[in-house]
């Protein structure tokens, strides 16, 4: 019991330190608001029409930026459902078995009725010893949060949160609106930045705010632009940051495009079907985060197959939080029911390639 005190104090200190990057961003944004609204628009701009237009446009962008940032920070990452967790009896059975083959059979039996199609590099069922659960596809264990996160992209220190299935849309909007925020400030501040060097600005403290506002906004624009373009590429390819570094492994082997459904479907999987919700930080992503449509899914001989071309039975399966033989929600079934982005020949080739491999399953914990 004695060590629990120091450990709890250490965890508390770590939680406080994790908020320092967020506090830094908050202070920068607060100063930029003061510098742009008060020092630039109210104190330096003399034309009333220009001042009103700048203030209106600025506050619209500012509200959307803060809203998206708030949602990214405070949206709780989703964890795997209880169906993926080992029961008490399964835990005891797994602990009693010393032989790897017996443990493999236990995990194989549990995973047979679950929507699990990815494997470890060695071909094993992805099992988290820390959380004592079978990892759903695209799920990874975060060492900072000490939890398994559904469709984990990365742990971002600037939001002090894991970016995953529940808040990836918010993260994308945060990048988009923060980039737009910086570009807008840079563009509107440019003429007054030039006046600073030509000494056409009044000799007040506003000129120094205008100077540093331009430098900070332009520098942040460069870094945000590169990050935003990279994540746009990930969305178009239907990959997470972790999957871009290490491609997902299926039974037939590694496939970096295993979850890609085509540009339009990949985009809608993150932002949803309703266009009106795309620019708003409201959750509209498709699916449940535990299973994802892929042309490779029915090629797994250990998983029972079911037709994906009809939507008649998908709604009832989506309404109950259970996993049938083909556990795709209605939104996921719609992605598969339309014209696929892959060719039948590619799927057949993948099937032939997979049929030649039958990896031995072992327990492997991926941190």
From TrEMBL:
Organism of this sequence: Austrofundulus limnaeus (Annual killifish)
Entry's family note: Belongs to the DHHC palmitoyltransferase family.
Keywords annotated in UniProt: Acyltransferase, Membrane, Transferase, Transmembrane, Transmembrane helix
UniProt enzyme class: transferase
Notes concerning its domains: The DHHC domain is required for palmitoyltransferase activity.
Subcellular location: Membrane
Protein's membrane topology: Multi-pass membrane protein
Sequence segments annotated as region (Disordered): 302-367
Extent of Low complexity compositional bias: 305-316
TM helices/strands, residue ranges: 16-40, 52-70, 170-188, 208-230
EC number in record: 2.3.1.225
Endpoints of the signal sequence: none
Gene transcribed to yield this protein: zdhhc2
Name recorded for this polypeptide: Palmitoyltransferase
């Amino acid at each position: 019991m004695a060590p629990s005190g120091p450990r709890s104090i250490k965890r508390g200190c770590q939680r406080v330190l994790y908020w320092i990057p967020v506090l830094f961003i908050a202070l920068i944004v607060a100063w930029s608001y003061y510098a742009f609204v008060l020092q630039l628009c109210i104190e330096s701009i003399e034309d009333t029409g220009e001042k009103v237009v700048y203030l209106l446009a600025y506050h619209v962008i500012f509200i959307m930026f803060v809203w998206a940032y708030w949602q990214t920070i405070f949206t709780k990452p989703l964890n795997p459902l209880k169906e993926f967790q080992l029961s008490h009896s399964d835990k005891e059975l797994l602990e009693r078995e010393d032989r790897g083959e017996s443990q493999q059979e236990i995990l194989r039996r549990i995973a047979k009725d679950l929507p699990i199609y990815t494997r470890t590099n060695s071909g094993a069922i992805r099992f988290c010893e820390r959380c004592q659960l079978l990892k759903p596809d695209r799920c990874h264990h975060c060492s900072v949060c000490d939890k398994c996160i559904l469709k984990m992209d990365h742990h971002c220190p600037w939001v002090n949160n894991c970016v995953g299935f529940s808040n990836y849309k918010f993260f994308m909007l945060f990048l988009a609106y923060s980039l737009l925020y910086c570009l807008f400030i840079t563009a509107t501040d440019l003429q007054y930045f030039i006046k600073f060097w030509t000494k056409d600005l009044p000799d007040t403290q506003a000129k120094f705010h205008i100077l540093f506002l331009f430098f900070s906004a332009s520098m942040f624009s460069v870094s945000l632009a590169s990050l935003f373009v990279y994540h746009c590429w990930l969305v178009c390819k239907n990959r997470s940051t972790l999957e871009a570094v290490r491609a997902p492994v299926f039974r037939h082997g590694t496939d970096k495009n295993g979850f890609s459904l085509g540009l339009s479907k990949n985009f809608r999987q993150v932002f949803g079907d309703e266009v009106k919700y795309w620019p708003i930080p409201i959750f509209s992503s498709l699916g449940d985060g535990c299973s994802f449509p892929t042309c490779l899914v029915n090629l797994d001989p250990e998983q029972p197959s079911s037709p994906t071309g009809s939507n008649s039975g998908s709604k009832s399966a989506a309404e109950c939080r259970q996993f049938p033989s083909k556990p795709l929600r209605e939104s996921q079934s719609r992605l598969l029911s339309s014209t696929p982005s892959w060719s039948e020949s590619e799927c057949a080739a993948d099937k032939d390639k997979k049929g030649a491999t039958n990896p031995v399953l072992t327990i492997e914990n991926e941190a």
